[in-house]
Amino acid sequence: MRFLHTSDWHLGRSFHRVSLLDAQAAFLDHLVATVLEREVDAVLVAGDVYDRAVPPLSAVELFDTALHRLAEAGVPTVMISGNHDSARRLGVGAGLIGRAGIHLRTDPAGVGTPVLLTDAHGDVALYGLPYLEPALVRERFGVEKAGHEAVLGAAMDRVRADLAERSASTRSVVLAHAFVAGGEPSDSERDITVGGVAAVPAAVFDGVDYVALGHLHGSQAVTPRVRYSGSPLAYSFSEAEHRKTMWLIDLGPERGIEAAERIDCPVPRALARIRGRLDDLLADPALARHERSWVEATLTDPLRPAEPMARLAERFPHTLSLVFEPERTEGDPLASYAQRLRDRSDQQIAEDFVAHVRGGAGPDGAERTVLYGAFDDVRVDAAEREVSGR
Fold it and tell me: Can you give the residue ranges of the Calcineurin-like phosphoesterase domain (predicted)?
């Protein structure tokens, strides 16, 4: 059985205030064409269909058109909600839509109930695990600690229990939206850290033949059977080196993956990150290849030059982001504050602040727990607001 695995469409999202609606429409055209040309048996969409809980009408219309085209093609689609989606909104009408072969899995209660497909070799059970916000589903899954590993583990226990009741020849696929250890993140994913821990081990998903993941925007294989499709478009300059693809997965007649192929997505415009003094960037012949790209320019001039964006735009008319990082010695007290914070989590920054105001004495264990709780409360409150649409 052949699957096309995709995720993280983020319909409605822009790129540095540049609309991506046409690019997203071109991707969906490409997806439907690939489904038909490569004789795909089912499409797997692993969450973050929309970029926010209440998407703009143009994004909803694009989504609606894509579903109609897939349904008309007679290709089953299994889709889960991600951490950017409002599960309740995305799941409206799921029962009726399911009759057309579009299976929306947005309710955590249904994780152990698969979509069953059949080929010449028997059944394939597809389980949809929507994004599980630990604090909101902990009680439902009967876990004591509100953590990603605990709730995903409980969800997978339900999957394995259902599989145990089926024929031993039943092949299985899980869709999930999570940060799995070993995955490489980018700057454009929303933080889902709980208690200072974001990643879950790939072993959580033991017992199934393929795991179609969403959340991380780079296409990658955590293990041969646990893969991220990545986003079809770049949503930050940190993705400038990404190859945007979908996974074409062939599930063999026996348990396991028979073949995996990356299908390239259309690129609306290349991304480039350039760095140096302004005059050098404007004169360097090696940068000619970036003159039609979307550009992020980092200027290292010791003193901020006059009208830098206007001057850059003369050579690089699609410059979207301008960053200033003046050249300074390592011990210079004016070194960029942003540089000092780079790659540090909110928790680490807060702990450093405590140490600073105490003359070097950082927080003890109990205080770290309080800080973890404060950050988690803020994140959970944001998640609840998205769910309710407030």
Answer: 1-218
